[in-house]
Amino acid sequence: MHAKKTNLAMNNLSPIGIFDSGVGGLSVVNNIVNLLPFENLVYVADSKYAPYGSRSKEEIFDRSCVIINYLIQSYNIKAIVVACNTATAACINELRVLFSIPIIGMEPAIKPANRLSKNKRIGILATSGTLKSSKFIALLSHYEGNSEFFSQPCHGLVEEIEKGLIDTSKTRAIINKNLSVLKRKKIDVIILGCTHFVFIRHLIKEFFNEDIPIIDTGLAVAKRLLSQLEENNLLMNRSLRGKLIICTNDDSKQPQQTLKTLAPDLKYKLITFN
Ligand code: DGL
Fold first, then answer.
1. Could you list the residue range(s) of the whole structural domain that residue 120 is in?
2. Which of 23, 36, 185, 229 could form a disulfide with 234 if both were Cys (CB 3.0 to 4.6 A apart)?
3. What is the pLDDT of residues 129-168, one digit of tens each?
4. What are the CA-CA distances from residue 257 to residues 23, 172, 260 (Å)?
5. CATH number of the domain that residue 62 is part of
6. What is the pTM of this model?
7. Looking at the domain assignment, is residue 252 inside a domain?
8. In terms of domains, do 154 and 232 share one?
9. Residue 78 near ligand 1, beta carbon < 6 Å
10. Angstrom distance (rounded) from CA 207 to CA 203
11. Is 4 a domain residue?
């Protein structure tokens, strides 16, 4: 049994912690930087343990605890964004019991998709971990009477995106292999239920070759973060300009290369952690 941990030292000047299995959560960081440019952010890419999609609930919970403890101890963070659908599905409730700072998670945008879809036929791209989770199954069951959902786990895509390979024939071939079945289902909205997939939205659009809305939850999460900070009196002074630190536990040259492709406009300091 873990004891609940309170970060008593945090205040509105503290940074916000954000994490994912790897670089995928940077698609959420982009939304947070746009909406809350005054906040300091520390992003952890758990690159050594990516992908999370095929890991057990227990492993993902353990990694999430290691990362949140690191962020509290090293950066005194005031809130955490779990920028990972898989980790949210696996353990957000347990994390909220364990840590007493605001914790914002992500989940596939089923409700907005249901509103948008005319055919009431919706495609969901997410990891197998998310799709198998009881949290996701419960969410889906809420809307199953209104729309028909077609879920696809997209094996192999996260690995390519981690390498920054978002425009290669191999990535296109993986999309082709995974999504061909969806093409025949007459879906008219696609949900990106994995933060990594935002970086290949252009390839998914190209594959479907028609104007299907492809939606994600990055902006909704940034808005939720803003309202949580306001409610808890933790918002930074809006006249300041925040900084971004990206931490990775991959000490090879790979993260630098990947970031050049995936985050060409972000300003950040890259550091490694163990
Ligand atoms: N980006 C993550 C998500 O949103 C995890 C992908 C993975 O590591 O498998 O689910």
1. 110-215
2. 229
3. 999 999 999 999 999 988 999 999 999 999 999 999 999 9
4. 11, 20, 5
5. 3.40.50.1860
6. 0.96
7. yes
8. no
9. no
10. 6
11. no
State yes or no: pLDDT of 2 exceeds 70. Answer: no
Q: What is the pLDDT of residues 87-119, one digit of tens each?
A: 999 999 999 999 999 999 999 999 999 999 999
Do 169 and 186 fall within a single domain? Answer: yes
Q: Which residue, 198, 215, 232, sits at the end of a domain? A: 215
Mutate to test the pocket of ligand 1, among 19, 20, 29, 136 (most ligand atoms within 8 A of CB): 20
Q: Are residues 71 and 129 in the same domain?
A: no
**Atom number of ligand 1 nearest to Cα 83:** 4
Q: What is the DSSP string of 203-261?
A: HHHHHHTS---EE-SHHHHHHHHHHHHHHTT-PPPTTS---EEEEES--SSHHHHHHHH
Is 78 inside a domain boundary?
A: yes
Atom of ligand 1 nearest to the CA of 22: 8
The whole-number pLDDT of residue 84 equals 98
* Sign, Cα dihedral of 250, 31, 16, 66: negative
Spatial contact of 179 and 214, defined as CB atoms under 8 Å apart: no
